[in-house]
Every structure is written in C-alpha cells, then in structure tokens.
Design goal:
heterodimer; A: about 1000 residues; alpha+beta; 6-stranded antiparallel beta sheet; 18 helices; flat; B: about 160 residues; mainly alpha; about 70% helix; about 0% strand
Chain lengths: ~1000, ~160
C-alpha cells in the first residue's frame, strides 16, 4: 500500500468513527465513490475496531497474560505465619532484594523488622552470599545510628534477616517537596556521619547513602538502613559491562530495584519506569559513576548530596536522562545553595568535591564540623560576626560537648514539632454546637442499652439486665408501663430494632445457637430470620421488607479489631439472603428513603470512620476521614443528617453532619449535639417525629473494703466504700501496717497512683499526677516506698516512689521491652517484674544501679511457659499468678517454686491474686467473683460476688482480716433528646 | 508451616520487575554505545527492550516440547505465561513488525503503550505530537493489528 493510500484509509477511518454508526454508510458512500477496494479496506478496519474490544488496552504487565492475580502474593499468604521464632504481622515494604515485614519475636515478645530473601533466589548462591554479606556487614557494627541486626537465618528455603523495627519516617518522606531547617538537617547529617565513621572504622563502605535509606525515629534518632550494597573495602567491586555508560552494572540494577517502594502492587509500574532509575543515580559519587574502585570517601560524597537535598529541597546533580545526570555528577558544579550560612556551604562543597582527595578524608571529620555548625546555628545569636570569621579558623577551635547536646535538643524539638503525632493532638477543637434538650426516661437499676424508638414515638424498646439475663423491654412513653417481651427466654436478647410500620421488632438472641430473630411488637410470634450463628445489629430497610445484619458484634468500638466483616441483607418474607459487601462494616443503617446505607468501619490500622454506600451497591463515600473514632451512624428521619458518636471532643459524644442522601456527599460542618453531661453515649435510635433516643453510660470504678474471717474463709461484715463517687479507683494494695491503701486513680485519660487511708478518713493523696500512665502499685514490705509500672520513659518500666510522693526512681532499664506488675519479696530486698508475654525476672533492689542485673525466673528450656506473678508468699518460697503453656494454651492460675525453679498450673478456673498468711490458701478471681482456694487440695469456694457488677482486683491485709477490692459498676439509662 | 507455603506459591508482583529490569538493563547496556541525547529516544528504547525480552521469552516458551520436561527459563519464576498466551504474544509481535512497514509512528505508539505502559499524555510528549493524534493513531493501530492477527490465524 502506498503511503498516500494509507493516508486516505486513515482519514476515512477516523471520519467514519467520528460519526454515528448509522451515518457511517452514507459518509463512506460519498467519500469512496467507486473505489470499492478502498471502501472494503476501511469497513474491514472499522469492523475490527468494533470487535477488538479491550484487545491490548491494558499494558502487557497488567494483562492477564501474567496471571498472578489469582495466586496470592507471598505477602498475603505469609502474614500470620511464623518464620523461625518470628510471627509475621504485616508487610512494611518491598524492594529488589526482598520484602520487609513487621514481625513479632515470639520469645522476647517484641516487634522486629524481618527481611526475606525471595525464594527463587535461594537457588542462586551469589544472591544468598550477597544477602548474608549485608547482614554480616551491618551486624559487625554497633552504633545507635545503625540499624541493629538481631538475627539471620533460614527456614526451609527462605533466608531472613531480623532487624530492629524502627518507628518513624524515612528521610525521603520527611523532605518530600520541602526544605528542612538547617539545624534539623545538620542534626540528621551528623548522626549519619557518626554511623559512617563507625562503619568505615570497621572497614565497611555503605555505598548507597540516600534519603530512602535513612530512617528518623519519632524522637529524632537517625537509623541508617540497608547495607545491601555494602562491601568491605578491598573486595572485588563487581565491575561488569561498563564501557560507554560507565556504570557498575550490578549496583545500578540494585540501585534501581532498591528505590523506596512502599506499595508492592505499584512496584511494577515504578520499576519498569526508567525515570525511577534516574532517581537513584543522583546519589552516586563520581568514582561510582565512572565505575571505578570506591573507598569510604564515596559515602561522604553521597552524604553531601543528601545534606544538600535536605537544605535546598532539590538535588545538586540532576538531568533528564541517565547520561545527563551522570554527566552532572562527573563534570558540573552543583547548583548554588541559597543559604546565609557560608559554613554550611563550605561543608557541603567540601563533601561534594569531585576529587576525593579534596573531600573530608574521614566521616569523623565531617561529623565534627556538622556538629559544631549545628551548635552555632542553634544558639540564639544575632551576632553576625561569627559568620565573618574564615571557615578554616572556625573549625579548628574546640567546644564543650554540652553545647552539642543543646543543638541536638533544638533539632529534636524541631522534629517533634513537625511530627504527625503532635499534629493529631492539635486537632480536636470541638465542632459548632446546637441546642437540644435531653430527658432521662428509664430508671431501672443497672444498665439499659440499645434503645429503639417505635416510628410513632409512642413506645421504646430496649435491653436490660434486670431480670438476670438480657431481655428486651417495651416501655410505653405515655403511661410509662414497662413489659418484658422476652421474659420466657433464659438466654440473652439484645439489640431490638423496630420495623418501619411499628408492628415488628427484630433482635439478636443467643437462643438456639444464636442469630437474629423477629417478633411482633407484643412479644409474640418469635421466629428466626438468619441461620444460627454470628448475625447481629439488625437494621430494617425503609420499606420493611429487608433487614441488614452484620457478622460481628460490636460492643466497644475502641477494642474492636476490625477486618473484613460481611454485611448481609435478609428478606423478611422468605429469609432469602444476599451479601451486600465484605468490606469492614459495622452497625449499618438504611437511609429513610432507601437510597444509601451508612456504616462505620476501619480505615488503615487505627482510624474508625463513617461511610455511606448506595443501597443497590457501589463505591463507598467518606463521611469522616480523620484519626478520631467515629461510629454508630443513624440517619435523621428526613434523611438530611447523619448523627453519629465520636470522641473528637473527648469522651464519647453525639454529633451530626449534613449529608446528601442521594450522593452521600457531606454538605456541611460537623456539629456537636449536646447530650446528658458526663456520660458516655452509645446506641442511637430515631423516631419518625425526630425524637432521638440514646443510651448514656456511666462506668465507675470504686474501692470497697470488707471484713474477712481467715479461719473460716468467709466474709465477716458488710462492704464499705473507700473514696468518693467522684473518684474512679481500682487495683488496691494495702500498706504493711494496714493504714493506707495505694491504688490507681483514673480520670479522663490519666492514670495516677493514689493513696487513701484505709479507714476512709482524711483526703486522698495523689503520688503521681501527670499524663503518663502509672499502674500496679505495690507497697514495699517496710512501708516506705511503692513500686509501680509506668510508661513515663517511653516504654513500660518499673519505678518506685516514696510514700510521700517524692523521689521517683526508675528501677528497670530494659530498652523498650515493656515490663509490668512489680511484686516485692517478703524481705523487700528483691523485686519481681514480668516482661510482656509472661516472662518474669527478679532484680536486687538495693544494689547500685550498674550492678543490677535482672535474672529470669525460668531457664531458657522452658520457652513455652508464660507466667505472670501476682504475689510472693511470706515464707519467700513461692509465687502465685497467671500461668499459660504455649502460645495458644489456656490461661490458668499457677505457682512458681523458688527452690526448684519450677512452675505448675493450678486446677482453678481463674487467675491467682493473693496468698493468705498460711502460705497455703490463696484468693483468686474468675467470672468477676473472688474465691478462696487451697493449693494443696485444689478445692475452692466462692467468697465474694457483686453481680451484676464486675470485681476487678482484690487484696488482703497482712493480718488477713480485711479484704479490699475494686468494682466496676455500669449505670446506663436511656435518654430522649429533642432538638430545639 | 510457613516453609511449605513459601515453596508452593508463585512469587507475586513484587518479584517480577527485578528479573525484568535485570534483563532490560542487560540489553540496554549492550547497546550503551548509543548516546541518548533525548528522553524520547531513551524511553522508546526502554519500551522496545521490554518487548524484545517478553517476545523472546514467549518464543522460548513456545518451543518447549509438549508434555516433555520443560527447560527452566530464567523468567519462568516471574512470568506465568502459558503456551497459548505465548503464541498470542508472538503473533502480536509479528503484526507489529508488519505495521512498522506501513506506518512506523503507529507501531511506536503501540509499543510505548502496550509494552512500555506509558499513558497517552506521556506518549504524546515522547513522540512530540498532540494527545489527540496519539489517540487516533492508537485506534487505527489497534484495529489494524486485530485484523492482521485474525487473518494470520485464519490462514
């Protein structure tokens, strides 16, 4: 075909396509005239075009050509499994040399990062060697700014490296798009230089210094990662093909593949994108670019590039193609730095010298200059004369180390200021308020929850525990008459929901295997709607024909570990069921005109937000998207607002936001709706007239004391409350002389240690009073100090404080392992604490700090046993506490014997709390009751029960004549709200 | 046991690019004597490389004896290519060669889009034409290739 012919075909083809199909024939008639061949050609192409469909529409790598879509990625299938001693929790990132997972070290119960070498590379010894070399390189180095390697090994065909898990951001994420303040940049660069100094001293060159390989922890500590390219100096540097392009091939491919790729699914497009390749070339030193031999000074160059980028916001050497970029590195000067600090320019210039003889010759030298400079810039000084001194002279002078600490603080403060953690606390300004009036309408004892208003507003259904199990009650608003609708059933019935016509009530019941049932509003004609099992939260469609149910029961939104939970719609008539979505859906609510369904669910790890989705199916639309916990959405009867609960103003309060019922789009600000003060709000329900019923909960923790007869093992009096109703107290411990009680005081989000007199006289005294959480107070046997565990150091550690509140001392320095539950020895010389996961240790309290070494109670062979000691017998020979064998064993009560260093479970259904002074009987708790057990016969008897309230902890006085315990009382009532 | 899982699963998307880029770069560097002065050339070559690698792999796959011991190809762990799809890919490659003879630019558009994964806008920049032109080229090229492949199959 001649090119002219082809032009004709082309023009006609597009001309025809531009027209409607029915006009095509006439168009072609006119255009082709007698040229039948031409017409056939064009028509053939048009036909092919129509038939082609999605032929080659998707790029080849996305195409089903490569059918990995159905087989799960390794990441998906490995999560939850164990490799060696590590349980895989989630995928953190992926690169060319393998994937990195967040894992839990089962033995030490701490989080680590686990890097896995891809299975098929196991067959390639060169790759395995490289992998091991990386681990060896980094593990030989011991420096706070170098990532700690914990372990290296293999499980089957999988090689892995376990490193510390660093919580923070990569330097790349921090500088993305913007410049840094000089002191902060200098602080980070100085830490990297320090790490390099150590590495170089050990003969190791990193060779891949760039922002993606630097992590900055929340507290400002820098960790250098990814020694994957590191080679000991002197080893063959692996020159392959290099010729004109002049690159060390191996490192180029690895450089490309090791670019920060956080989302494995987009890895394909990112890595086959040559532009990504060029991003990593920018950090090569001239000698690397030339493919020649490199030494430690190459790291200094790359650090200079990184520092430049931190300060200037752009890269010093860039280009459109690899050649250009490399050319810039080799031959061009870096762009000028816009900074008023000539010293900073000097440092950068020197590290970026093309001739490595002209650079800093050691990382230590560079670090010293960086530190001095950071100090200079951080110190508040308007004196410009210091900047006029010649750079050489400045660097020669010596300064005190304390000044660096100050500069470091400045850098840390700046980093803290910008960290996302702080931003979250700044938000939370309460939304605009509207006026409303609330009246309490139920006054039964105990908890009334799950109100559901009948559509005409004339009656209210709710669940109450008053009869001993949960039942559904109906209360007529006018007369106030109350009836138990599920009286006959001894199983729990909750979550009533009125049908739109007010004739029926759907509810969750535990009877006959559980499920959602429907009964008439008079409590008759109960029939089953769903199959037996986990179906909850019935919600009616506006036409009354369908009911939505979720597969999960949601009680406390903060504790809910969410995952995909299905949402089902059941047709009331015939019970036919249809799956609506498998997204994370809780508490769904149909909108009044049936258009959309509102629900809440999990987004990422910690967010709980509200969405709406079209009732016929479709994409969910956000209603909220922030770090506040939002849940329990209900539509107003006119469909204009979504009311929901949120903690955005502290506590758990009621809010509303205007939402368009058709599209789900939010059309206004979030407004606060005032409710009964001082309560936690749960469970909302609207009547058609706009009345809103809600349950208001008040949960209190209170301390009680009661006389006890140790000989008989029985209570010997009536309980009396300690402290006042305004205090929320638990976890009591009695002083040796019996005069004082140390306990935990809870208020809003604070947890502090509080002292009370045991006779109830006088004022309570707070021993700690700050935002740090302090728990588990225990009196020392001489009555002078109280041990407790606290997170005030950033992780849970054991502390002691004098009984007057002074002299807080930290006892353990476990570097983030998290330890709890201090238990004193009877002579007060030793203290036991338990590491996360049930690993108890003992420490000598009176030894000087540097001589204290915690000793594990169990030998290494007893890996499988977990034990949480709660009390030391006063003959000093044994401990009682919680006991568990294996990761999935049943938690039981157990004992530990010092002489034999062995432990054994007790055949008791709960956890042990306190020994009696005969060293034989002990108190333990199960099912919210306290019982007394004989450890020899293993017989036990109930001693104390406060149903329906829950007993949390109990302690016994030294003479065993008094029991002290904490109770959790929940009062919940239904209130009615009307908007003014 | 985690070990068994690892052995059975096909490695996922994350691992494909490694080997592919590996191969791509091998070839690119072989051709490194070419001095890329402009982006267009660079990206065009990259897409071409991708095509070559995949088609070569498809041909190797296609040559495997049916039922016999399959020789393990270096990309086998990475690309799950059945013999049927391999044949499709080879047919497309042949058709593209034919298209190059008729209209080179259209062939490049297909190469950049299908093998390089570039978007219409990006292709427009690389080839220095308007996105509308790229779109038109694409439609005609697609129709032409489809027709060509079907004709070959019928013969």
């Amino acid at each position: 075909m001649t090119s002219e012919r082809w032009r004709q075909v082309e023009d006609l083809f597009h001309g025809a396509l531009d027209r409607a199909s029915r006009d095509r024939a006439t168009f072609l008639d006119a255009a082709c005239a007698d040229d039948r061949a031409l017409r056939l050609k064009v028509e053939g192409l048009l036909e092919s075009f129509d038939e082609a469909g999605d032929f080659i529409e998707k790029p080849v790598l996305d195409d089903a050509l490569f059918s990995s879509a159905k087989t799960p990625t390794r990441a998906e299938s490995i999560i939850g499994h164990k490799i060696g001693n590590y349980e895989i929790l989630s995928l953190i990132g992926a690169g060319g040399m393998g994937e990195v997972y967040l894992a839990c070290d089962a033995r030490l119960d701490r989080q680590i990062a686990l890097k896995l070498l891809p299975a098929q590379f196991t067959a390639d010894p060169a790759q395995v060697r490289r992998f091991e070399r990386e681990a060896r390189a980094a593990s030989a180095l011991n420096h706070p700014n170098i990532i700690t390697i914990h372990d290296i090994g293999r499980e089957g065909d999988t090689h892995f490296i376990a490193t510390e898990f660093v919580q923070g951001r990569t330097l790349r994420e921090i500088i993305e798009g913007k410049k840094m303040e000089s002191p902060e940049a200098l602080g980070i660069a100085a830490q990297i230089a320090g790490a390099l100094a150590t590495a170089h001293a050990a003969g190791i060159v990193h060779r891949d210094i760039k922002p993606e390989n630097v992590m900055v922890r929340r507290d400002g500590l820098v960790k250098l990662l990814d020694f994957g390219l590191a080679k000991p100096v002197g080893e063959d540097c692996g020159l392959r093909i290099d010729k004109t392009l002049n690159l060390d091939f191996e490192s180029t491919v690895e450089l490309a593949n090791k670019s920060a790729i956080r989302n494995p699914q987009s890895a394909i497009s990112q890595l086959t994108d040559p532009r990504m390749l060029m991003g990593t070339l920018a950090y090569l030193s001239p000698e690397q670019a030339r493919g020649g031999a490199v030494d430690h000074r190459t790291d200094i160059f790359s650090l200079g590039v990184t520092l430049y980028e931190m300060v200037a916001g752009t890269r010093p050497f860039s280009g459109e193609t690899p050649s250009e970029a490399l050319d810039a590195i080799l031959n061009r000067e870096h762009g000028p730095l816009a900074t008023e600090h000539p010293e900073l320019e000097y440092v950068i210039k020197r590290s970026l010298a093309k001739d490595r003889e002209a650079r800093y010759q050691t990382a230590g030298e560079m670090q010293a200059d960086l530190q001095r400079l950071a100090r200079e810039l951080a110190s508040v000084s308007t004196d410009m004369t210091s900047f006029q001194r010649r750079p050489q002279a400045l660097w020669r002078s010596r300064r005190a180390k304390a000044a660096w600490a100050f500069a470091g603080m400045a850098a840390l403060i700046i980093i803290w200021f910008f960290s996302p953690l702080r931003k979250a606390e700044n938000r939370g300004a309460p939304a605009t308020m509207i006026s409303s009036r609330s009246t309490q309408i139920t006054h039964q004892n105990g908890a009334e929850l799950f109100p559901s208003l009948a559509p005409d507003g004339r009656s209210l259904a709710y669940a109450s525990l008053e009869a001993g199990n949960w039942d559904i009650y109906l209360r007529e608003t006018g007369s106030g008459k109350i009836r138990n609708l599920t009286e006959g059933c001894g199983e729990d019935d909750t979550q009533p929901a009125f049908s739109p016509d007010g004739e029926w009530i759907a509810f969750r019941s535990e009877r006959e295997g559980g499920g959602v049932f429907v009964m008439s509003a008079t409590g008759e004609s109960v029939r089953r709607l769903t199959p037996a099992g986990h179906y909850y939260h019935p919600a009616w469609s506006p036409d009354g024909r369908k009911i939505l149910c979720t597969r999960e029961n949601v009680d406390d939104p903060a504790e809910r570990t969410a995952g995909p939970r299905q949402l089902w719609a059941f047709t009331v008539g015939d019970g036919e069921q249809r799956l609506i979505t498998s997204d994370d859906v809780a508490q769904p609510q149909w909108s009044p005109h049936g258009r959309r369904i509102a629900y809440w669910g999990k987004r990422q790890k910690t967010q709980r937000d509200i969405w709406t989705v079209p009732a016929l199916g479709g994409e969910p639309v956000d209603v909220t998207n922030d770090e506040h916990l939002d849940w329990n959405p209900v539509w107003s009867p006119d469909g204009r607002y979504l009311y929901f609960l949120s903690d955005r103003a502290g506590g758990m309060k009621l809010f509303r936001v205007a939402v368009d019922e058709e599209s789900g789009k939010v059309s206004g600000e979030i407004e606060r709706v005032p409710t009964a003060e001082g309560h936690v709000i749960r469970h909302l329900s609207f009547a058609r007239n706009g009345d809103l019923a809600y349950a208001a909960l008040a949960q209190r923790r209170t301390l009680y004391k009661i006389a006890f007869d140790p000989a008989r093992g029985e209570l010997a009096g009536e309980p009396s409350q300690l402290g006042t109703d305004s205090l929320s107290l638990d976890d009591p411990d009695i002083s040796p002389d019996g005069q004082w009680i140390a306990c935990r005081s809870l208020r809003e989000r604070q947890e502090n240690i509080l002292l009370l007199r045991s006779d109830g006289a006088g004022e309570p005294r707070l021993l700690t009073n700050d935002d740090y959480k302090d728990r588990g107070p225990r009196w020392s046997p001489d009555g002078r100090r109280i041990a407790f565990y606290s997170n005030r150091s950033g992780a849970w550690e054991i502390w002691t404080v004098k009984s007057d509140g002074s002299d807080k001392q930290r006892l353990t320095f476990t570097e983030g392992a998290n330890v709890y539950f201090p238990v004193w020895s009877p002579d007060g010389a030793r203290l036991i604490f338990t590491r996360h996961g049930g690993l108890p240790f003992v420490i000598e309290v009176d030894r000087p700090l540097h001589e204290r070494r915690p000793q594990p109670l169990f030998s290494v062979d007893e890996e499988e046993t977990s034990f949480w000691p709660r009390d030391w017998s006063n003959d000093g020979r044994k401990l009682a506490g919680g006991w568990k064998k294996g990761l999935n064993g049943r938690p039981m009560a157990g004992l530990y014997f010092f002489p034999s260093r062995s432990s054994e479970p007790l055949d008791l259904p709960g956890s042990a709390l306190a020994w009696l002074s005969d060293n034989r009987r002990l108190l333990f708790r199960h099912d919210e009751k306290i019982s007394l057990a004989d450890t020899r016969t293993q017989k036990y008897r109930e001693v104390l029960n406060s149903f329906p309230h829950r007993i949390l902890q109990a302690a016994v006085s030294r003479d065993n004549r008094w029991l002290f315990y904490s109770l959790e009382q929940t009062e919940a009532d239904v209130w009615l709200l009307s908007l003014k | 046991m985690a070990g068994n899982y690892l052995r059975q699963e096909n490695p996922g998307h994350t691992l494909q690019p490694t080997a592919l880029v590996h191969e791509a770069w091998l070839r690119l560097i072989d051709q490194a004597r070419v001095d890329w002065r402009n982006r267009a050339q660079f990206f065009g070559v990259a897409a071409q490389m991708m095509r070559r690698i995949l088609v070569d792999h498809a041909k190797a796959k296609h040559r495997e004896k049916r039922g016999g011991d399959a020789v393990k190809l270096s990309l086998d762990d990475v690309i799950n290519l059945s013999r049927e799809r391999a044949a499709d890919l080879i047919a497309l490659d042949d058709a593209l060669d034919e298209l190059t003879r008729v209209d080179e630019r259209k062939s490049r558009v297909v190469e950049l889009r299908y093998f390089g994964g570039f978007t219409i806008e990006e292709i427009a920049q690389i080839l220095e034409v308007s996105p509308e032109t790229v779109m038109r080229d694409w439609k005609l090229a697609k129709a032409w290739l489809y027709q060509q492949i079907r004709q070959e199959a019928d013969e």
